[in-house]
Amino acid sequence: MPELPEVELVKRELTPVINLKITDVELSQYIYNGHKTNKRTIVKDNLEAFKTLVAGKMIMHIGRRGKYLYFLLGDEYETTHLVSHLGMSGAYFIVSDFEDIKEHNFKKHWQVIFSLDNGQKLIYSDIRRFGEMHTHESLHDFPPFARMAPEYTDELSLDHYMTMMRAKKYENKPVKAAIMDGEVIPGVGNIYAVESLYLSHILPTRKVKNISDKRLHELFDRITEVFELSLSRGGSTISDYRSVTGGKGEMQNSFNVYQRKTCPLGHPLKTKVINTRNTFYCTTCQR
């Protein structure tokens, strides 16, 4: 699943569509079939209402909160927010022609096509179809945003993180589970959680209450360090993540422990399922 760096990179690469008008919206048969069986595949709104609301609007701004993208859309009468989550395998492409999407699977599994007034298309593809789109009059109407912690770049983020890590609801949780909670710090998924914990020398299984303030502070610093490194290397491509231009990231070449057999010092790694995800760690380097 794309984590904060990958979603931030997508947001940055989508800037060419800002100030363009959406002239038409086309939805895949997968989406229509899902709605017929009440699954609400990808688009969570009523489909005709979604198309009517979005078509004719200008893309005024594109932002990110945690692992979510949001588009501010508007015309002379109203504004609305289109919130999008990439799920496990979602990807956006800006193309002049549908055939410009080079990879067969992304071409085959297109889900939403936004036609733009400059003749280009903004296409959302999703192979596994776990992504989501929905509209909101205000971002405050979307509960995950209301609960979400400040972004790691916000000056209030560290204080918020430390306060939450000392809250009763987290004291008996494994530290890995705590840092993957967007109410503590947004955007940390499985990959960057295990990488940050390794760099902090903290076992992912250790309960939060048994970790000193100094070590928790260091963990925050390592999370931000890993985020910045990933941004500089184009994100991580394990299987399905692609940039808007179809490129793959290179962060996976810098992993210390994720999907590795040994740590950088040659110690064998252990794995344990935490929060339903395989967790990689070194019992020699981490404590």
TrEMBL record:
Reaction(s) this enzyme catalyzes, per UniProt: Hydrolysis of DNA containing ring-opened 7-methylguanine residues, releasing 2,6-diamino-4-hydroxy-5-(N-methyl)formamidopyrimidine; 2'-deoxyribonucleotide-(2'-deoxyribose 5'-phosphate)-2'-deoxyribonucleotide-DNA = a 3'-end 2'-deoxyribonucleotide-(2,3-dehydro-2,3-deoxyribose 5'-phosphate)-DNA + a 5'-end 5'-phospho-2'-deoxyribonucleoside-DNA + H(+)
UniProt keyword annotations, A-Z: DNA damage, DNA repair, DNA-binding, Glycosidase, Hydrolase, Lyase, Multifunctional enzyme
Membrane-traversing stretches: none
Family affiliation: Belongs to the FPG family.
Pfam families recorded: Fapy_DNA_glyco, H2TH
GO molecular function list: class I DNA-(apurinic or apyrimidinic site) endonuclease activity; oxidized purine nucleobase lesion DNA N-glycosylase activity
Domain Formamidopyrimidine-DNA glycosylase catalytic, first and last residues per copy: 2-131
Listed InterPro entries: FPG_cat, FPG_Glyclase, FPG_N, H2TH_FPG, Ribosomal_uS13-like_H2TH
Gene: mutM
Name of the protein: Bifunctional DNA-formamidopyrimidine glycosylase/DNA-(Apurinic or apyrimidinic site) lyase
EC number: 3.2.2.23, 4.2.99.18
Subunit structure: Monomer.
CDD domains named among the record's database cross-references: EcFpg-like_N
